[in-house]
Amino acid sequence: MKHAAIFFHYISQYMKTRLTYRVDMLMEIMSDLLFQAVNLIFILVVFGHTQLLSGWSRDEIIFIYGFFLVPFAIFGAFFNIWDFNERYIVKGEMDRILTRPVHSLFQIILERMELESLFGMITGLAVMIYAGSRLDLSISWYDPFVFLIMVIGGAFVYAGIFVLLASISFWSDSRTSIIPMMYNIGNYGRYPVDIYNKVIRFILTWILPFAFVGVYPSAYFLGREDWYGYAFLTPVVGFAFFALSVFVWNIGVTKYRGAGN
Amino acid sequence: MAKYIEMIRIRFLMMLAYRTNYYSGILIYSINIGAYYFLWSAIYGDKGEIEGLSVVQMTTYIAVAWMARAFYFNNIDREIAQEIKEGKVAVEFIRPYHYLTMKTMQGLGEGIFRLGFFSVPGMVIVSLIFPISFSATLSTWLFFMVSIIFSFIVNTQINLLTGVLTFFFFNNDGLIRAKRVVIDLFSGLLLPISFYPGWAQNFMDFLPFQAISYIPSMIFTDGFTQPEIWDALMFQVVWALLLIIPIQLLWVAAKKQLIVQGG
């Protein structure tokens, strides 16, 4: 209860600060939208030249992209910890975090929220509805619930990977470029993994499981039964990775020595 | 002139001091090139060529487009916006140089650094991993070099435009981000312009963006015939000259309405 109350307090504070620069906020939402449109345009243009991509049709690829946007939006809104090393470790801000009464990771999530990312969910849903209606997908009564679980699983996959990477900073505070690299690797998950070679497919499934954010869960909704096994693993992998990352984070916090200052 | 060359030198040395950051940059670009390589291989399937480009040419196109990006890309729009916000720009105004020229030279220093320490080694590494064909004709290389100089000029001019707009908007991070996305799409970095449907191509002929990535990359992959190359270079030159006009106009207007928020 206490956590929820703090969460909503932070949200209302956040809204106030953002609404001070309305034009800029609008521009940011627009540029996010533009960014999502670019990827969509890419798919549309490419399918002007081919019918199938390794056996996947245009609308299926669009559907996968639409699905991907939803967990990615949630991740972007709450796990904005790509600059954790610089902001919290190097500048010593972590000292302040540790004096706060809630869990350190939760506190950081609260401080680094970027709620305008959530607009990506709307785009994602719209894209999915567009592609889904063209594919004549049938929806059962339980599908919305499956969707919810898959989305949470996918967001946790992303969150898990990035929290793990942020935790590295507790041991080594030298600057690395692993995190921007990871954003680029994440893009691989937006397309069916069978277009990649075996090694990359294995990595995307078990080591950096970005495939569980896009293709695998989408395969369930697209009725690709041979992929159902992977599809249903989505929440398992998501929770496992997130749990692992929180575990590593907690160990990391005990190793934190402060920047001295 | 000497002071501007000094600017290039200083920025180059500054970048040199932080060169380790760049090795990971090469890896990031390689990851991107890899993603598009697999994607395009799947798109080509068993097609021999699409829009006159074979799959090897396409891979080369992507590789060179990304590696050339390391040369023409810079953050001077962000830097200008930052200096305006912090009020530092007031001091810049009284210094004995033209602020925008100085920014361009800093960008050039960065570009030259990345060309030597990023693009060239990056291209070598990428060519070991992916099937990439290098042109054997000397003229292709010469045209390419001329062409990337102009892609630097056009891209920098667009950056100056967005940067100077901060004088009027005060906080334009959103615009800067939007500009970056537009350039990625319309410059031909992600998709060769010739892949777009006809109406979109006609529309883009009226915009400067393809001068940034599409033209040098097509020259490099031998995707253009000789007359097409001349046309394309003319396109770059014309835009490089045309863009001076709005920059000058905005600059004059900006100086008049400068508000220093701090500093």
Report what the structure shows.
The complex is a heterodimer of chains A (261) and B (263). Chain A is an all-alpha fold. Chain A has 12 helices and 2 strands. Chain A has a two-stranded antiparallel ribbon. Chain B is mostly helical and 263 residues long. Helix content of chain B is 75%, strand content 2%. Chain B has a two-stranded antiparallel sheet with strand order 1-2. The two termini of chain B are 29 Å apart.
What is the alpha-carbon Rg of chain A in Å?
Answer: 19 Å
Q: Please give the most extensive interface between any two protein chains, plus how many residues each contributes.
A: A-B, 37 and 36 residues
In total, the number of domains of chain A comes to: 1
Helix content of chain B: over 70%
Distance between the termini of chain A: 35 Å
Descriptive keywords:
heterodimer; A: 261 residues; mainly alpha; 2 strands; B: mainly alpha; 13 helices
Short précis:
Chain A has 261 residues and is mainly α. In chain A, 71% of the residues lie in helices and 2% in strands.
Task: Give the SSE layout.
The complex is a heterodimer of chains A (261) and B (263).
Chain A: H1 2-20, H2 22-46, E1 52-53, E2 56-57, H3 58-78, H4 84-90, H5 93-98, H6 104-111, H7 119-135, H8 143-171, H9 178-186, H10 198-207, H11 215-221, H12 228-255
Antiparallel strand pairs in A: 1-2
Chain B: H1 2-17, H2 20-44, E1 49-50, E2 53-54, H3 55-72, H4 76-86, H5 89-94, H6 99-129, H7 138-164, H8 166-169, H9 173-186, H10 198-204, H11 214-220, H12 226-242, H13 244-256
Antiparallel strand pairs in B: 1-2
Helix pairs in contact in B: 1-6, 2-3, 2-6, 3-6, 3-11, 4-7, 6-7, 7-11, 7-12, 7-13
